[in-house]
Amino acid sequence: MNEERTMVLEMLAAGKITIEQANQLIEVLGEPSLSTAEQWAGQRQREERGTPHLEPLEPVEPLDHRRRTNFTLDQMIELSEHEVDPSYLRSLRDAGLTDLTVDEIIELSEHEVDPSFIKAIHEGGLHHLNLDQIIELSEHEVDPSYFAKLREAGLHDLSVNQIIELSEHEVDPSYLIKLREAGITDLTVDQLVELSEHDIKPGYLIKVRQAGLTDLDFDAIVELSEHDIKPSYISRLREAGLYNLSVEEVIELNEHDIKPSYVKALHDAGMEDLTVDQLIELSEREVDPSYLKALQGGAN
User: Is 158 within the bounds of a domain?
Assistant: First the structure.
C-alpha cells in the first residue's frame, strides 16, 4: 500500500473525512476505490481510537506522469469539500491546464467551466485571459470558434467585454469581413453592432463615402439608411446648392419627392434663400421655376 493511500485511511480512521470523501481523495490519487475491508477497518479504528491528534501531513509526492497531482492532502480535502469531481481534474489535466491553483480549480468547477472550453480559448489565440475573464466568457456562452472567426475578420485586439457584446448582438464575422473587404476598417465595436442590428449593407457605407459625405456622423448614416435615402440623392442636393441640410431635412425632402433638379432650377431662377418647407410647398403646388423667373424678370 503506498504512502498516500495510507494517509487517506488514517484520515478516515481519525474521523476527519467520511468514506465518500476518502474515496474521492483516493480517486484523485488515481488509486482504486476503498475496498469493503478498508472501509470497515477505518470505521473500526475510528471507534477504537476516537479522534486522536494527527501530526501535520507532508505534501504528497507527485505520482507518475499519467496521474500526477502535486496536491497536498489538505488541498485534496478542500477539493473534496467543494465536490470537485476527480474526472473534472483529469479533464483539466488532459486539456493541458496543469498550472492552476486549487482555488482556481474550485472556482472553475463551481462555475461549471468546461475544460475543453478553456482549451479552445487558448487554441483560438486568447492566451492572456485571466480566470475571471474565462468564467465570464463561459457564462455568456461565447463559442470559442466565434472569437477565432473575429480574429480572422481582422479584429485582433478586442477586450473580453467587446467579444461578449458582439456575440450577444449576433454580429456575424462574415459581415465584418465584407466591411473590411470594402475598405471599412475604422469602426468601433458599438458602431459594428449598430450596423449589424440595422442591417446596413457595406455597399451603402461605400456609396456614402464615394458621394463625398465624409462629414456625416455615424448616427446620421444609420438614420438615412433606415429611410432608404441614397447617398447619391444627398450628393445631388448639394450640387443643387443645398449644403447645410440636417438629416431630418434630407429625409423630409426625400419623402416629399423633391427632385434635386427642381431645387437647382429654383436657384437658377433666383430663388436661393428658400427654406425646406417653402421648397416642399412650391413643389406640391407644382409651381414652375421658369414661371418664377419670368415673374422676377417682369418685375425688373
Answer: yes
